[in-house]
Structures are given as C-alpha cells and as structure tokens.
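Appendix B. Worked example

We walk through a single record from start to finish. Start with the input: the chain for Methylamine dehydrogenase heavy chain, Pararhizobium capsulatum DSM 1112, length 382.
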Amino acid sequence: MRFLSLGLTAMVGIMAAGQALAEEQFVPEKVTVLEKIKPGPNVFAVDQSWDGASRINVVGAKELDRKGILSVGLVTQFILTKDRKTAYTASAYAKRITSGPTEAVLQEFDVDTMSAKREIIISEKMAQVAPQKSLLQLSADEKYAFVQNATPATSVTVVDLAAGKPIAEVPTPGCWSVHPATSGLRFTTLCGDGTMQTFTVKADGSFGAPEKSEKIFDSDTDALYAISERAGENLVFLSFKGNVYTVADKDGPAKLVDKFSITEGKEGAWAPGGIEVMTYNAANDILFVAMHPDAKEGSHKDAAHEIWPVDLSTKTVLYRSVVEGVKSISVTQGKEPVLFGLNDDEGILTRYDIDPATKFAARLSGKVESVGKFAALVYAGE
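Next comes the structure step. The output line below is what the pipeline stores for this chain.
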C-alpha cells in the first residue's frame, strides 16, 4: 500500500505540473519575410535542372552566406544586367513532361527583392542545352534580349524588353552562340566553317543579310569554345587547344586581330577544360583560364586542375594556381579581383582571392557546398 500511495502521489504531481504548463499562454512563432536581401555584392550560381525546376543560388560574395534562390523552369539560361540589379532567365515549362507542348518563357527578376517582375513568352525553339553565357544575352543598351534557338536548325529570337515581346527570329544556319556588339542592335555568331557572321536588326524587327567574315579559325583542327569575353572594343575567344583569338566586330564583318598560344612550350599536354572556361578582369587586362592536363580529343569539358592568369598585353601566362574540380569561373572587376569557381559534379562554389602582387595567384578563401546537382554557371556580382 505504501508503494501504491507513493505512485499515486507522483502521478498527481505530474498531472498538476502538466495542467500548469497547459494554462501558460501559447505564443506562436511569427514567420516573417525580408523585403530585401542583405545588401552587398553577390555571386550567382546557376543550378540547371533537366527534370524539374532550375534554380539560381544567390550567395553573398564576401561572407558566402546564402541569401536566397530564384526558382525557374527546365534547362534555364541566365544573364544579369550591368548593374547586377536585374536578372533574366530563359526556361522551358513542359506541360506534360514526357509529351505535349512546351512553353518557353523569358523571366525578369528584381535581385534586391528576389521577386519576379514579369514574364515574356518566347519561341518554343529555345535551345534546351547546358547553360552558357552566350546563349542568352542583352544588347549593349540592355533594351533587347537575344535568345539562342535550336530545333536543331539554329536561329536567334530578338526580344524587345520595353514592349515585352519578341520582334524577330533571325535564322543563323550553321552558326551558334550570340556575342552582342558594343553598340546598336547587332550580334556576331560563330559558324562551323570557321567564319563568323554579324547580324544587324532594326527596332521594327527587320534585318538584312549577315556580314560574313573571312575564315578566322579551323573547326576541325582548332575549334573554339562558343563563349567570348569583351576586352575593350574586341571580342576574345579561346580554342580547345589553348589559342587566344582576338576579334574586332565594331564595323563591318568580324576580323581577326590577333592570335597566340598559352600552351605552347608547356609540358603535360595542358588545355582549357570546363563549361565557362575563361573570365576577364578589365582593370588589369587579365584573362583567367581553367586548365586541365593530359588533354586529348573530347576532353575539352574536363574539370580544371589549375587556373592560369594570362596577361593579354604581353601574351604571357603569369602564374599557375592549383584548383580542384572547377568547371566554370567568373571574376570581379576591381584592381584586386576575386574569382569564383563552380564544381558541377559535387555542387561546390569556391572563392579565390587574387593577389596582383604575386602574379595574380589564386588563394582559396571559402566554399559553399550543395548548390545543386548541375551547378554549371557562375556570375560574379560586381
């Protein structure tokens, strides 16, 4: 009986304590949403999806803190305005996934509020391929967008952003990629026969025959990556074998200005490798290139083992910094730049401080993991 009495006493005590807790007023947690992301420079990591929503990871460039995600459609392409305040994506939205129609959409986002501003329906011919900066571009005045198409026949959709509608589809048979001119509604594209074609579009959507260059490169022996960097008035291209091509596109057909090798005399069969394999810092006139050893036919997408800073004025490789698994790179534009890299296999965003005093050596200064299954494109936000 004594044990029963003690048990009943303990039970009564527990019930009393529970009743006291129940009588305390429950205060629910309030979930709030920031009106704007934390100020400061950002870096944008594109995680392109082929089986669901793609996402744009917005990360603080200094602290590498996650600020938010822009959710978009399948196989997205991405571009930023020069002030880094507005982002555009081109994505496909498959209504039945495995069959039926697909709607292609150009979406405009306000970066500070991470909010969608509007959508513009574009041609369903939009190229559904791995992301590259040359597949979605803005005109020099940022009043128009260029969207690469492939059916597999190639063309470029020109979108009037003020009017909010496409105004032209420019056929570009045998050519691929978009490289906007420094002025006007013009763009140049790379062609399989080693030439480049330049198109001029009028505000009413009309356009004439392209201006075709002489042969600039050999697509069989020295194929170019279909990406470019703007160095002053000229475009800079890079070949699979590590040749740098400087092309003038200001007036008339594109013209080859200069060509030099960054791999000649280097042991180990080094060559560029990755997706966005180069990035340019205008303040120092330095082209950074992602490089891999033991290059062979078909290895042009292999991840980088080193980053090479190339002085375009002297045509020399200044340093060779070791990196791991980097496929895409992007650099900031200050005199003391910061370089960001993406490892798409493991979804890792890395930051490297670049020291001009040590020949632009890259020092790992931070990383962010789990930025996606196919994190293939990175934009430095300053």
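Two observations about the output. The helical segments are 2-23. DSSP finds one helix and 30 strands in the chain.
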